[in-house]
Amino acid sequence: MTETNKTLYIPLYGKALVSRMGIILCDRKAEEIWEKESFPLGRKSKSKWLAYYMAMRARVFDDAATKAIENNPDAVVLHIGCGMDSRYLRLGKNVQWFDIDFPAVVEEKKKYFAENDYYHLFAGDATEIEKWINSFTDKTAIVIMEGVSMYLTKQQMQNVVAVLHSHFDKTVLIADFYSEFAAKASKYKNPVNEVGATIHSGMDSPMELVVNENIRFVQEWDMTPTALINQLTGTEQKIFNKIYAGKFAKGLYRMFEYEL
Fold it and tell me: What string of pLDDT tens digits covers the 260 residues of the chain?
């Protein structure tokens, strides 16, 4: 797989770790895959603090996706850049769900995930969304992009939004973004560097994707909720709060929800 594809093992490790510990989220599939794959991550990538953070991010995305599905029960779910994530299994929702990623990732994922009447694997590159979006004829879509936008240029991300907006009658988009500063700083200090991946862009305001009146910024989601931090030990809570949950840290990496 390419260097960008290999970044999928970083959140996979985090979810497997916390699941074994019985905190933050339960992900037996992540445990199973990590036990078999055990991709050789670097020291930063296997930091327990990063593992906690990746797991919390996944849990908040789970909560956001659950809410979106409840509000739009007839929507198709497109999980773009799904990696080895098992969100469909964690949520247990009987909705039409498509895990979308590069062909090499999809082939890897087929080793561990079985398709059924609701769950499907689909090969597609976010930067070429125009080439495959017509495969979906639904009127409403819930689009999840976790850990994806930073590997696209800002123009490519804006194009994704434009294509979704023009294709579906309604789209709920849930995505996370680095700030401009975080994107620049990541060239020098970021675990993804250990697998050779490159961060391309950041975004300081959610309004940068609101390019017309039909695109609405709905809300920002807190990726480090107090209720999840409180599942750590007392000492861990203090350290984690300093690293990931302070005002400065929260400004570096944010999660936004839009309605198109």
Answer: 444 445 678 888 889 989 999 999 999 999 998 888 766 555 555 678 888 998 999 999 999 999 999 999 999 999 999 999 999 999 988 899 999 999 999 998 999 999 999 999 999 999 999 999 999 999 999 999 999 988 898 889 899 999 999 999 999 999 999 988 887 876 655 444 444 445 567 888 999 888 888 899 999 999 999 999 999 998 999 998 988 888 888 888 899 999 99
Q: Which of 107, 101, 118 is nearest to 5 (CA)?
A: 101
Structural domains of the chain ordered from first start:
3-259 (3.40.50.150)
Residue 34: is it exposed, middle or buried by C-beta count within 10 angstroms (0-12/13-18/19+)? buried
